[in-house]
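User: What would this chain look like folded?
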Amino acid sequence: MLNHPSLPTCHFLLFSLLLFIYCWNKATCSPGEGRNIWQQPNMDPILKQQSFLHETFPPGFLWGSGTSAFQTEGAWNQDGKGASIWDSFTHNSVSGNLASEAANVASDSYNRWEEDVKALEYVGVRSYSFSLSWPRLFPDGNARGQPNTAAVKHYRRLIERLLEKKIEPVVTLHHWDLPQVLQEDYGGWKNDTLVELFEAYAAFCFHTFGSRVKHWLTMHNPYLVAVQGYGTGAHAPGETGGPAASLTVAHNLIKAHAKAWHTYNTNFRKAQKGKVSIVLGSHWVEPQRGKAADASVELCQESIEAALGWFANPIFVDGDYPVSLKTKYGALLPTFTPEEQLWVQKTADFFALSFGPNNLRLGQNIIGYGQTVTPDLRRLLGWIKLEYGNPSVLVAEGGWFSEATVGMEDTVGIYLMKSFVNQVLRAIKLDGVQVFGYMAWSLVDGFEWNYGYSIRRGLFYVDISKPNRTRSPKSTAQYYRQIVKDNGFPSDETSQEVKGHFPCKFQWGVADSTLQVTRFYPFSPQFTDPHLYSWNLTGDGSLHQVPGVKLHTRQAQCTDYLAIRDHLRLLASTGVSHYRFALNWSLILPQGDLSDVNTEALRYYRCIVTELKKLDLEALAVMYYPTHRSPNLGLPVPLHATGGWLNYSTVNAFQEYAALCYQELGTWVQNWITINEPNRLIDAYSSGEDKHQAAHNLLLAHAKAWRLYEKEHSGQQQGLVSLALHADWAKPANPFLESHTAAAERFLLFELGRFLDPLLGTRDDDEENKGDYPQEMKAYLEERARVMDLPRSPLPNFTETERKELRGALSFIALNHFTTRLVSPLSHTQDSFHQKTSPDHDCLILSDPTWPSSSLRQALVPWGLRKMLNWVSQKYGGTLPIIITGTGIDDQASVEDRLRQHYLRSYLQEALKAYHLDGVNLQGFYVWKLQDHHVPQYGLFTSAQHQSKPKASIAVYREIIANGGSLNNDSVQPCRFSELHEPCFVCSWMFKNKAMLVFGGCLLITAVMLAALVVFVTVTKRNRRRSRGRGKVGLSRRRRKEGACLCPPGVKR
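Assistant: Here's the prediction, encoded as structure tokens.
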């Protein structure tokens, strides 16, 4: 035999053991289950806890904030610090002042670190994540040499002060600021020499600071270093090596991390008892909308693997890259040897995640067709749990950015923070993810890499133009402080459910817009056509009118309108007591005056109200229902042509129209709305002056119509008249700024106060001050006119006569409420005043992304209804009844409209709280609306095109009505409303089958008459027989008697 050289026996056995373990791992480790996350249903906005969870984090949750050395320290060449690749990159990129365009000073945290600690104390966090500067500690990059003693002293002082304040340091070894000398000598992270150099640097840090540090992070988001630094050149060192360079750099970064972990595990863990990990960044992606097929899910999986899995799979799974990367890059992808795979895998004691704008921007480049990148931190945490076996997770970077011009008022940042932190809470409580800490990024404003100072991410504002670099808390700092104090989002008392009943005469209703009168004439001409016809006279099978012959006909009846019958049948089945619908002004009076009255249209509406009465239902009729979609804003053409509501003649025309409505329909209508949502109608006018003039004339038109009813019809008809306002609640977008509180109040005054104040005045107004616009609104517009150099305020003035006419011209307060808005002030500068798009109230409307919303982006905010009701009640005295004349939400479900069911339950619960707990005189609630037109939206029934099927929300509404205001109400009801207004199904069936009942009645009567005739004939025949029998017996008796008497004399018997 040939003799071959052999390894020493022990080495051979060790190699065999390693190979066996490697092969066993390959055979037994199944792929991660992360892809299953896309098979699970996404957030359900109907479930309250899915949209926003009011609960607290686990005890001991690690709240913190973070910074990085290069972004905040400044002092780029102070105390012996060496240059980093980012110093060189920025110095070579900027063209002007280095202090304002580079990070030479930045936030000056190297010199102002004590102010940073005070900032941490202000927020109340328990930890601070910061990075050590490698070139500050070792200017030449070689940790085997002597360190910079000034740098060591600086970091020791920082760590000690943090511990004194009971703030735990979470220390990152390397956050992108590689010593420039290592880039020049070795080519940076492209060279695997840096693996050993980083190991030495990590060992020094563990040795020097490790006794005081329990959480170490080797490096921050290596994905961006590999791709942006060496692939695209967007980051330092600015190399454009493409995918090949990025893959090599990533390979070396992974090995460097593993080396550092093993160094700590072997030499420091036992004594220091700390933990080591690496911060990995990722985006999140959802499949093409409406699709979760295997192919689409696989694309999503590959997208996350291309960023997060690139580094996490080797470190947390099997020491090797995901299969998708191997398929994509082939031979371009470096490989780990079996030995390397064994010591790379499982080299993290917890999962540290970075989730912010940098990765989400890059995520756009690694998504497949139809996918969407979304900031869904909860879903990403769920994926990590499934993919990597439910590790402990630290959100090491969480947050967004704002424009530098925002300054300290970073209002939008509040809601982004609220969303991110609550997503973490839901991941913990609902999905079982083991998140133990959250680092709000960042503590102070700093240099934002290739964006410089144009964007800011700090909780504290730093004015880089001022030498003192004062830290000023932003709104997000105040909000985060509250979250930390509360340890999350504890529920408040307003979330507690109440039980009770609304008053007995509560108006349970359904609201509709203008009823479309498509057919004035009866559906069938059977009883109304006076002509006589012959059929098939010429053999063509058609009818031919017989000339000269006319028949008597009956007058038209409401039963001829089959559409009315079917429509009201649907309405009655909902269990409501009232129906709100609108008349068509332009149809009734096409010319805008009484010269042309459409009597057929009036007859149609008369049929509506009379048929409602027959069903024991009350009408709430709207005289004028303007919409931006309708021609001429719903006005008769001649009125619109002469200026519409900008012309006072329309006021008089409306009074004339109202008089006709009262006269023709008032007998059957107890509740009137003169104008629906005049505060939305004025939005159709472009200039601020036109808006004010239109609102002015709308108010006068309503007042004239109200006074007319009071004078001529109220005594006989006993009805009530109001106007309906769109009344969404306005919440200050920033709860920490008085300017936002003032803006929200101003918004409500312009929306509601401008109409209600002239009619009702406020609780504090004297009688003589009533009948005018809100004083605050008048003062604001006067000041605004002064700033804009206008001669006067655009707000018209009421005459004394008009003010008298306006005072008290409201029988009840009608509000259409759908949602809640966040309101913030626009910038009060002269430039903003002159913007054409700037509204007169100078308010900006925002929305809270944590609020659940419908497909049409209507936010579902039940508590806003209660807030609105209280505001109106408190401001206007609380004596007049308040009626919600329209509320609802769109739901795309064809039958199982779960969103609408939740809407009805939650909004009516808040209405009940307002009535019982707050003393609001609420007297009605109308759901918008009865039926869809085409696709599923707001209707309780599907459209007629889909045979008007009832949706599931009807059963919910019926049950609430039957219980007097809430579901499962077991308390004693003060009245049996359900008995009073429960629809008569027998009556409805009889009404629907009248013809059959009449025919059956005729048959019954005929049968009875025939039976009577048969009985009569039978009895008559029987009597005759009896009479004939009695006649024969009498005759025989007479004959016998006569025979005895007629014997001849002398004859004996």
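Residues 1-31, 977-982, 1038-1053 have pLDDT under 50 and may be disordered. If you want, I can go into more detail on any region.
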